[in-house]
Amino acid sequence: MSFEFRDPVTYCYDKVYLLVDCNNFFCSCERLFRPDLEGRPLLVLSNNDGCVIARSQEAKDLGIPMGIAVFKIKNLIRRHHIVTFSSNFSLYLDISRRVMEVLEHLCDDTQVYSVDEAFLCFKHISEKEALDKAILVRNAVFNLIGINVGVGIAHTKTLAKLANHHAKKHRQETYGLYSILQDMPRINLLKNNPISEVWGIGRRLNERLNEQGIHTAYQLSVQNYEAIKKEYNIVLMRTVQELNDLDVIEDESDINHTMQIMWSRSFTKRLTTLDELHQALANFVASACHKLRNQNKYCSQITVFIRTSYFGNDPKFAADKTANLKVPTSDTREILYVATQLLKMIFAPGYKYNKAGIILGNLTATRSFQSDLFTKAKTPQEQEKSDQLMKAIDQINHQGHEQNIFIASQGPQKAEAFSNKNSLSPSYTTSWDDLPKLI
DNA sequence: TCTGGGGTCCTAGGACCC
DNA sequence: TCTGGGGTCCTAGGACCC
Question: pLDDT tens for residues A244-288?
């Protein structure tokens, strides 16, 4: 097979993607403020300290898998003196925001993809220039924030993800940077990776494709587009196209694009009565509504769900119910009223519930709605009054860490009262409003 | 005792209309 | 009395992501 070789200095590409991804992000954030932990294995745990959601390299090297229940590795933790942290999302989000600021400074077409990664898009650039950019990005983020990143360089987002994976896996040889703009390294990388490493191939697709004899990314890349679309779907077809350097996955980084807000937690203690569930739900509603108003949005769809644990021998039960509102709202009292009705409809006695939640959907930036003869809109005065009240509640609750004002049914207990956080790190960066910015 | 918390997109199928 | 097909909109559910 012969590949076309393009001169790295003189050949100019229309469009190049750099995927920048922070290494072991949550663990790296914790370590920023605890340099004494350098070199020691670290874990960040989920909300109830129930399972592992992030691992430092040392912890990965010990063979600790993602998502494993903490009680299953108690001995390992003791034996290797592994340091564990409860998840501190406000810290991670703050560090994330600072990292993204650096990236946006270095590239005006930055698409933030998740809390720890972003695609940087450069136009009319040679491979050498792309590599120079990648080095600049890696050094800037490390020098200014203290976080290590990996950078994958390719013609499509799917390939940039794969290149990034290679860069991080072989950090010694790649220094965290890898380009597959040329055909030769791209084809080699495809041949050396199973399809499960490809962005968009999950467990189910992996099984189905394996049954068809498709195991490597390369085997997937040579499939016929139309046949894949017919047998599977358009999403997988786009993945196959992307493996062949066709840039077909759109920019979805529209900042106000959120379509729904979910708030849910699992409980440390099993809840059995409608009353207990209602109190927990009321807290979730309050938090979700607060988030909704922060985004200056209204919702017209409310879903409530409750369920028992997937594990153990107790009887299993799960239920959800959705209500659509004629008039969009962000008023905690209205949403709580509807949520309460929904909860009453789905509640079944005799089960030990371990999780509940609320989803606010159909988010809109205005209250506009299709009026009909039977729907009475609030008068502008009523709307204004509701907005003012909610604003006041948000302001007072924002003044401290405690939630000071409750809707009556939230009860005296806060949502946190239902969950455990045994080894939470301090909120280093968000405790003081006037903390000097790192950059 | 103890098993995360968010999100997105696509598709199939039902309701309804002409 | 019986019989259609095509279009749109909505929703639930499945698959994926970090």
Answer: 999 998 776 554 567 789 999 999 889 999 999 999 999 999 999
Q: Is the CB of A361 under 7 A from strand C?
A: no
CA of A321 vs C1' of C11, distance in Å?
Answer: 12
For residues A112 and A115, what is the distance between their CA atoms, to the nearest angstrom? 8
Cβ(A45)–Cβ(A66) below 8 Å: no
Please give the share of chain A, as a percent, with pLDDT higher than 70: 87
What's the CA gap between A416 and A279, in Å, rounded? 12
Question: Does the C-beta of A205 come within 7 A of strand C?
Answer: yes
Instruction: Give the SS3 label for residue A33.
Output: coil
Residue range A45-91, pLDDT digits in tens:
998 888 999 999 999 999 999 999 999 999 999 999 999 999 999 89
Q: Cα A351 to the chain's mean position, in Å?
A: 31
**A116 strand C contact, CB < 7 Å:** yes
A260 touches strand C (CB under 7 A): no
Q: pTM of the entire structure?
A: 0.86
Q: How far, in whole angstroms, is CA A61 from its chain's centroid?
A: 24
For each of the domains in chain A, give its residue range(s) and CATH number, in order of start: 9-182 (3.30.70.270), 193-253 (1.10.150.20), 255-417 (3.30.1490.100)
User: Using the CB atom, is residue A236 less than 7 Å from strand C?
Assistant: no
Nucleotides of C under 7 A from a protein CB: 11-12, 14-18
